Amino acid sequence: MMRHKGTVAALSVLIALGVVVAPSAHADDWALNGKYQATSNGDWAATNDVYRNEASVRSIWTISMTCINVLTCRGTVTSDIGWSAEISTTNMEYRVKRELPNWEPCADGSGRTVTGHQLYRFFPVGDGGSVLPGSRVFGGFDQTKGQSGGCSINDVLQIELPFRLEKLDESAE
């Protein structure tokens, strides 16, 4: 988890210094449009900050976005595994939020479940994992959390997986 916090801290410093976005960057350069291979790597999953293998998830995302400026983009992600969600940018980081009904069964035997709140956060990266605007590869995190008190206890289940998104070659489709 230290690497995650270090990456976020480094990204924050670069953004604060204005290094991430060149002055000549165009809003359209930040809009993601087309098909992407999305991979949440369960081999490096952390459940409540403890590493524990989870199932990896691979899917094809079709993304349609528009940007009104370099900082403000919005659109829709449609996954080939049956869901759609909004995509937006925040501090030059892409974010996809979705709800997962009945995600966590309560351990009290009541049959109740808690909704999971899934958040994908990612940004363009180079070979070494550093921020690289214009890259066709994105790195980040797929995090799903339950809700505190959802099963009558103040304990939140949180699962986080490394996430990779890669633009597919449109000529290969």
| Percent of residues in β-strands | over 45%
- Tell me the number of helical segments per DSSP (H or I, 4 or more residues long): 1
Element order, helices and strands? HEEEEEEEEEE
The overall pLDDT, averaged over residues, is 83
Q: Uncertain segments of ≥5 residues (pLDDT<50)?
A: 1-24
Helical amount: under 10%
Biggest sheet descriptor = 8 strands, antiparallel, barrel
How far the N terminus sits from the C terminus, by CA atoms, comes to 37 Å
Give me the side-by-side strand order of the main sheet: 1-4-5-6-7-8-9-10
Q: Using DSSP, what is the number of strands?
A: 10
Quaternary: single chain
Judged by helices, strands and strand pairing, the structural class is: mainly beta
Radius of gyration: 17 Å
Based on Cα principal axes, name the global outline: elongated
Q: How would you describe what is shown here?
A:
The chain has 173 residues and is mostly beta strands. The chain has 1 helix and 10 strands, in the order αββββββββββ. Strands 1-4-5-6-7-8-9-10 form an 8-stranded antiparallel β-barrel. β4 and β5 form a beta hairpin. The protein is elongated and about 50 Å long. It starts with a helix and ends in a 6-residue tail after the last strand.
Defining traits:
single chain; 173 residues; mainly beta; eight-stranded antiparallel barrel; 1 helix; 10 strands
